[in-house]
């Protein structure tokens, strides 16, 4: 039995190799390394395992993905993978080395995801898969004979390049039984037609979060939420991780955060287990395909933190296939201010406007689940009605469940519309827009914003804010509740709540 490390496999590449990178199924650039074989061990892999190691070097300009084929013989109970890479010092302002990892089984690595078995990005340095269990981020199932592929994703490469090492261990034995996944129900008791509070961007130990699903569920209840969506990076392993955590008071929706090199997007409320690939850039013709896959799976497409300044996070795909956009991500920052301005500019396209969402993107303490939250008016606390409400823009965003907001436009003879709705009236007929807020923070101000800009402001403490206009003067009206501005910051006060628009349309 070979229990040592094979140091003879060298997968170094240089800059000339970059010119020879092939594309995988039309996706981002990729390189396939020589296969790792276990066929020459003196004996087959035993209970303690047989290991092989690949060492290599990636230069700057390396492909987006590097595939390491692993020839898995029959009779294997578990495959375990560990890896490491160097992190040399780099000049200030220069990205250093960051290497992601995942795996596909013998069924293949195509964009259809048939062979997908897990992804942990750069959060873990090892994982294991067997029929009976798998490391969070990975999917349990039999380790069948054939060519598996460990996938490396050099997210950023330092000017010196990246030295890496991957060790694969195979352990022999009976495969055992794979537990049947238990997915959350699609509905909870709820309160009938009402406003429901949710956080649709959350991470647990199934990707790069530090909380367990149980800890997130407890935090959601503490925050007064009615629903949450599980959105792990590039994996569906979290979909079956919430058994026993839902209830009449908390609905759990399935989803994913698709983390590409040109931006992140959320798939919200998809069928459990729906695979969505991330191995493409905006220059490829893949994103529309997976946006359509989300819609076929009953979900929504939502670009996440579109103005985040980090590498790979800024949204480059356009908004043609989106259903909403995450304008507010976590505690309010200058990034959100930019996202708000960009979203507001999109509202002039009334026929195909995108509602705003707010989510916490919480990963660990002290990040607050439900800061912010999207408050949706829906016919019931169930997947279909909530997604309909989000897509229609019947929602507002708030920093906590202590704050609630109402916005109504009223025309002649009692005609009226609320958030996400349209008031149709004569061009010059007087329309009264009223903003009511409960639980506003001390010193907050209320703002009414139209396609011309901010038209009215008042202290929240003075009570409801009313403003008279006409459909000829305002295409839409939306509301903001702002905290006091920080002296010397040069920025408006942080958002405490904001609404999607009420539309005014001339008859």
UniProtKB/TrEMBL annotation:
Residues 198-262 form the Polymerase/histidinol phosphatase N-terminal domain. SUPFAM superfamilies: PHP domain-like. It comes from the Bacteria. InterPro entries: PHP_domain, Pol/His_phosphatase_N, Pol/histidinol_Pase-like, TAT_signal, TAT_signal_bac_arc. This is CehA/McbA family metallohydrolase. It comes from Streptomyces albiaxialis.
């Amino acid at each position: 039995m070979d229990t040592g490390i094979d140091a003879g496999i060298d997968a170094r590449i240089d800059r000339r190799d970059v010119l020879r990178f092939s594309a995988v199924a039309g996706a981002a650039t990729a390189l396939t390394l020589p296969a790792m074989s276990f066929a020459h061990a003196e004996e087959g892999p035993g209970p303690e395992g047989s290991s092989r190691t690949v060492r290599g070097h990636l230069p700057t300009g390396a492909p987006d993905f590097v595939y390491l084929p692993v020839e898995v013989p029959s009779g294997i109970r578990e495959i375990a993978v560990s890896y490491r890479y160097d992190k040399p010092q780099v000049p200030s302002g220069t990205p250093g080395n960051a290497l992601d990892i995942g795996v596909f089984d013998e069924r293949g690595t195509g964009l259809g995801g048939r062979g997908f078995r897990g992804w942990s990005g750069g959060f873990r340095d090892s994982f294991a898969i067997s029929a009976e269990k798998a490391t969070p981020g990975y999917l349990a199932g039999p380790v069948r004979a054939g060519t598996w592929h460990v996938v490396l994703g050099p997210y950023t490469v330092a000017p010196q390049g990246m030295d890496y090492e991957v060790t694969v261990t195979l352990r022999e034995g009976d495969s055992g039984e794979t537990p049947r996944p238990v997915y959350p129900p699609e509905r909870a008791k709820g309160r009938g037609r009402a406003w429901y509070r949710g956080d649709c961007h959350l991470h647990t130990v199934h990707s790069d979060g530090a909380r367990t699903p149980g800890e997130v569920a407890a935090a959601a209840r503490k925050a007064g939420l009615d629903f949450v969506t599980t959105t792990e990076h590039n994996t569906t392993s979290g979909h079956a991780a919430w058994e026993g955590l839902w209830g009449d008071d908390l609905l759990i929706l399935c989803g994913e955060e698709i983390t590409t090199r040109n931006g992140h997007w959320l798939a919200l409320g998809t069928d459990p287990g729906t695979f969505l690939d991330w191995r493409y850039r905006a220059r490829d013709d893949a994103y529309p395909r997976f946006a359509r896959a989300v819609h076929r799976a009953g979900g929504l497409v939502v670009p996440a933190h579109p103005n985040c300044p980090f590498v790979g996070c800024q949204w480059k795909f356009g908004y043609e296939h989106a259903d909403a956009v995450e304008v507010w991500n976590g505690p309010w920052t200058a990034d959100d201010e930019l996202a708000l301005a960009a979203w507001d500019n999109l509202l002039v396209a009334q026929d195909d406007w995108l509602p705003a969402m707010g989510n916490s993107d919480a990963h660990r303490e002290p990040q607050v689940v439900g800061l912010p939250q999207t408050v949706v008016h829906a016919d019931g606390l169930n997947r279909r009605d909530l997604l309909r409400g989000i897509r229609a823009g019947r929602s507002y965003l708030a920093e906590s469940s202590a704050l609630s907001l109402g916005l109504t436009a009223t025309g002649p003879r009692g005609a009226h519309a609320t958030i996400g709705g349209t008031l149709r009236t004569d061009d010059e007929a007087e329309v009264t827009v009223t903003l009511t807020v409960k639980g506003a923070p001390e010193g907050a101000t209320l703002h009414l914003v139209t396609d011309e800009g901010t038209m009215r402001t008042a202290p929240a403490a003075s009570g409801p804010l009313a403003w008279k206009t006409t459909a000829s003067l305002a295409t839409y009206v939306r509301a903001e509740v702002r905290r006091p501005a920080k002296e010397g910051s040069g920025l408006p006060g942080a958002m405490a709540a904001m609404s999607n628009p009420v539309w005014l349309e001339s008859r």
